[in-house]
Amino acid sequence: MAESKTESLLFTRVNKDTQSLPISIEDWEQKAREILPDGPFDYIAGGSGAEETLAANRTAFSKWAIVPRMMRDVTNRTLGITLYNQSLRAPIMLAPVGMQAIAHPEGELATARAAAEAGVPLVVSTVSAHSLERIAEVMGDAPRWFQLYWSNDREVSASMVKRAEAAGYSAIVLTVDTIMLGWKRRDFRNGYSPLREGKGLANYITDPVFCSRLTEVTPENAVEEILKNIYHPALNWNDIAFLREQTSLPILVKGILHPEDAKLAIDHGVDGIIVSNHGGRQMDGAISTLDALPAIAEVVAGRIPVLLDSGVRTGADVVKAIALGANAVLIGRPFLFGLAVAGERGVASVLDTLKSEFDVAMALSGSNSVADLNKSILARM
Q1: How far apart are CA 261 and CA 314, in angstroms?
Q2: Are 156 and 209 in contact (CB under 8 A)?
Q3: Crossing angle, helix 132-139 and helix 108-118, to 10 degrees?
Q4: How confident is the model at residue 19, as a pLDDT?
Q5: Among this protein's residues, is 278 annotated catalytic?
Q6: Letter string b/e over residues 183-210, b meaning 16 or more CB atoms within 10 A of that residue's CB
Q7: What is the mean pLDDT of the chain?
Q8: Choosing from 104, 130, 232, 278, which is the catalytic residue?
Q9: Which of 174, 235, 303, 357 has the least CB density, counted as fewest CB within 10 Å?
Q10: What residues are paired with 78 via a beta bridge?
């Protein structure tokens, strides 16, 4: 009998001539802690306020247990899904994380290569350390989405979206929970701001509309202009119409936690929702994403895709999120820790482990496909 992928992975790791890479997210985080200075590490690992929401995102997964079904013949499993007419190898994506050069010199370029090889879509941040066009170049035809931080200068937002569409991105993700910056105690203690260090300027200093607003294009001037534009308390649902005029791509809103906002998203023609609390980095004390998911999924009722991020760490977490109504999940910190420790190889290893865990968890739950995962296999603890 042919060995399973899990057995093959175990054999490979045990018999390596070189030191094995970490397996668990906890091990990756510990290795990253040893490598990175306080500022970058705390920026990646930390949350806002007392970090209650950061912790709640993980605790929420432990409130649900998988109740496996037996004797169901799970020989012919498939992990794939289809989103926006794109076939994906698994219901897993890389969340938009900005300024990845704080973790590794290659930043998003290393992440992009690993994502492309794994067939996992990468959502590229507005504040990436490399331009969206450069990231697209290293990904080739691999799936990628562009995350937009709204600008108070609407024409800058329009320019970014049009560039993304021209560069082969297949969806736009509007982040709506950053109308002002979360209160991050760790960053205050460290006196650390990667944006002020110029780590997230690439998409701005390559944008003709943004650059036209500067008397001189320098990192210092660019940072000040970004800070004038990136926080937008006036953002509202009517702005979706303007965004729709700029692109034919699907538009998702990221940061939805209330079912009434999910209704409004559908009413305003949004093509997808990402249930997210920004990984606990914005409002401390906010509901965890997994706790928010079922009510949102019920309201949406399959009319548009619902994705989830914040707190996903294992293959069992992926099973739970999908069973509670998500079409797919996004991970953030896990791949950043992998990037910090081993660059492209680290991101690839994190993804390989998560996909393998998901395959095992799905099989042991008695499921042959993502479509088989539903609330009937879960018990509330």
Answers
A1: 28
A2: yes
A3: 30
A4: 59
A5: yes
A6: ebebbeebebbbbebbbbbbbbbbbebb
A7: 95
A8: 278
A9: 303
A10: 369
